[in-house]
Design brief:
Glycosyltransferase, 18 helices, globular
Length: 359
């Protein structure tokens, strides 16, 4: 009887319970109000709004979208012309997020209008490859689209939704020779974000199932990841769990606790975050990529790409992104990130402001 009850409780803990009809990837209407309240009463939040967000949003309004037909990031050196062109086009991603947040914070529709133009332009031009490392770059645009989606015309919304379904379909179907590595983490993030934006139950169920399998096959009970062991790099461990944190955040906002989900082998995302903590704190050091046999790691090191030189020590500042994502679940990690950044600001990043709004 006890076993049956545990099974039922586990199922309930991960059941899909939508908190609203939409905008659970970004900010609900109530959360947008909360965002404006925080900004009105907090100097740190005002500094973020009037600094990075306003600068990026106004720059985006003064510019035009620059979508690229195919994002080409996977397996390419930074000097590769296709990757250079992709980087240039992908500047649109942060512009869309900033525009959407400026709209939410100020209720100035000129920001929403510009965000809509950028998203629709990408939907018209971009042809998804399905490669998770290429498609993971779309994350800020997905956040921004979710936020301004209710303001779009039916035709434009249908056009973008169709494009996102194609992204999700191709990413799910993409042949993955590196199953269970960071590739799959990025696959889960992008497909999962799209699933919740569209409130597609089947796609949500697939994403949750993939997440649970990834926790079991990618992570160890001590918190270490497959990428840490194969690449011999803390940076790849962080790169591996960061997209899982994004997905777990969206899932939590839809009534599912996946951050503390424990796989049959005893692994969990929360343990993987704790594995990163001593390296972020500087209590442990690690010479990166020393025992990696992955050709791309060797090639990047030969070209002295930042963060990829074999033997260089892992730098705590590299952990701020995943730490701030995990701070949604464990606020102490936000304090650690501020210490690493050397700032006392409550909101040194968009993620930290969002964490405060979402709680």
């Amino acid at each position: 009887m006890r076993t049956i009850m545990l099974i039922v409780l586990t199922a309930l803990a991960t059941a899909w319970i939508p908190v609203t009809s939409g905008q659970t990837v970004s900010l609900t209407s109530a959360e947008q109000t909360r965002l404006r309240q925080i900004i009105a009463g907090d100097r740190d939040a005002q500094a973020l709004l009037n600094g990075y967000l306003r600068h990026t949003g106004d720059e985006a309004k003064a510019s035009s979208p620059n979508p690229i037909e195919r994002i080409a990031m996977e397996g390419k050196l930074e000097s590769d012309p296709a990757k250079v062109a992709s980087h240039r086009s992908l500047e649109d991603m942060n512009k869309v997020q900033a525009l959407a947040l400026m709209y939410a914070a100020t209720q100035d529709d000129s920001y929403a209008k510009a965000a809509r133009e950028y998203v629709v332009a990408w939907a018209k031009v971009n042809k998804p490859t399905g490669d998770p490392i290429d498609e993971t770059q779309l994350e800020p645009l997905l956040f921004g689209y979710d936020l301004v989606r209710p303001t779009m015309s039916g035709d434009d919304r249908d056009k973008v939704d169709h494009w996102l379904r194609e992204v999700a379909s191709k990413t799910l179907a993409y042949h993955d020779p590196k199953a269970w590595t960071n590739w799959n983490s990025h696959r889960i993030k992008i497909v999962g974000m799209i699933a919740f934006i569209l409130q597609d139950r089947d796609l949500i169920d697939q994403s949750v199932s993939l997440y649970k399998k990834q926790i079991e096959n990618n992570l160890q009970p001590d918190g270490s990841s497959m990428d840490f062991h194969e690449r011999d790099a803390v940076s790849y461990h962080a790169y591996d769990i960061w997209p899982l944190l994004t997905f777990a955040t969206v899932a939590k906002r839809n009534g599912m606790d996946l951050y503390d989900y424990v796989a049959p082998n005893g692994a969990s995302l929360s343990k993987a975050v704790e594995f990163l903590r001593p390296f972020a704190e500087g209590r442990q050091t690690h010479a990166e990529f020393v025992h990696s046999a992955v050709p791309m790691d060797i090639a990047r090191s030969a070209h002295k790409e930042a963060g990829h030189v074999i033997g260089d020590s892992y730098k705590p500042k590299q952990a701020t992104g995943p730490l701030e994502s995990a701070a949604y679940f464990d606020p102490s990690l936000g304090d650690l990130s501020r210490k690493i950044r050397g700032t006392s600001s409550k909101y040194p990043s968009i993620q930290m402001l969002l964490n405060a709004v979402w709680r």
